[in-house]
Request: fold
Amino acid sequence: MNGVSKPRLPTYAIVVLTVAMSPKPAEAHLNATGMGPLYDGLMHFLMSPEDLVPVLALALLAGLRGGAHGRQALFTLPAAWLVGGLFGLTASATNGSAVLSSFWFLLVGGLVAADAKLSVPVMTALVALLGLSHGYLNGTGMGQSGSAVLAVLGLVLAVFVLTALATAFVVQLRAHWARIATRVAGSWIAAIGLLMLGWSVRGSLH
Amino acid sequence: MLVLIILWAETAFAHTQQGEAVGFLTGFRHPLSGLDHVLAMVAVGLWGAQLGAPAIWVLPVAFPLVMATGGALGLMGMPLPGIEYGIAASAIMLGAAVMSEVRPPLGVAALLVAFFAIFHGHAHGTELPPGQSALLYSMGFVMATGCLHAVGIGIGVAHRWRWGQRLLRAGGAVVTGGGVFFMWKAFG
Reply:
């Protein structure tokens, strides 16, 4: 087993950068994968940076704080996303999702950048709020058919997997520079949120 | 993983997505499009590398955050006088800091960098093209800024050698010279 080399951080960084450099257009409606609503929901999440990035930021935040925070986030976020999504299915489409996304980018990115020492209950509350709000917005855009429930389930599955991977990756980081890199990533996310907020305000003014 | 990414099947679009697909690349190119911006942002990385920890990461964190604040102000249409002078002055001051290897307290260095970041961000915010995807554009914009800082930090690794220290100071002089040129153009 000694011959098996462990994946190194630069390798992960190259893969993450490659994926980030080839983003796809965000779509308000479900992406048709041709494999059914479960996969449509899963793909919707992976193709929607406005959902994906806050989840990633939250996973980074939980990972920075350690295993207990990570485990709370891992199970609370998908559960809250599911509840929010199911509520959203019963509502009509809402406006203001751009402002809400900006807010979450700014808040969670800022907390990662500041390496905020949140307690487990506060972290859990934050995770639940993000899950409920984003899940609700996702649900409102998915219609009210029976297959939409499956799409929400697919989306929740994707949230669970991404949270598990990202949190586990950050929890095991011990090198000081790697944790700094995580915080720098948080500052970038917060900066993106600030710009999006400015963009939203400009849109509302014109 | 890379093979998986390369072979990833894309959705076929029967129509072009106006202002969507180009959002990230347009945003990424924007900070790279002006030499005045590039000089200042690389200088931030160089100065951080000279100062060492924690400035090596505090300065590149402070700059994008405050720059984004300036960008948001520009997007909202809030006026800021003397933007071109501020940008040129940032290259002069940051270049001079690298050239002289001045070591102020961390708070002072961060404040100086943050002050100039406002001008860069505001200039970008007012120049943003209409019809772009806000999120993708912002992602590209911030990532390009971070990459420019990383270039500066990467070059700044040479600071551990005596010849590298001289090289960095020479780099600072080049940045200052560029700043003087842009200041002259701003007055012209």
Notes: Chain A has one domain: 34-205. The longest helix of chain A spans residues 176-205. Chain A touches chain B at residues 14-15, 18-26, 31-32, 49-50, 53, 98, 101, 113, 180, 183-184, 187-188, 190-202, 205 (CB under 8 Å). The radius of gyration of chain A is 17 Å.
